[in-house]
User: What shape does this take?
Amino acid sequence: QVQLVESGGGPVQAGGSLTLSCVASGIIFSRKTMGWYRQAPGKQRELVASINKDLNTNYADSVKGRFTISRDNAKNTVYLQMNSLNSEDTALYYCRCFGGFSDGDYWGQGHQVTVSS
Assistant: This one.
């Protein structure tokens, strides 16, 4: 079965940095577009960043210049490096594997990031 397992989150002070990792299994990772989403309490889930097999990236305006998405196909892992964190970044962060022609989306279980002042 497909599994996406996030790690690396937790509490961090405002202005600090954190890196999330998502290890995928059960997919041909190198062919997939991967992404990070987040959801704060009472808000909709939103795209944070994505990266496709050709290393094209997209970022939410709110994180441009602060966050960097990357991937290591040899490790089946996608990363989200987060710098200059602020309270607006507090959310549950989800790893996503985008579906293709014959398969659907897959999501990780979510990983909490809490930014304190």
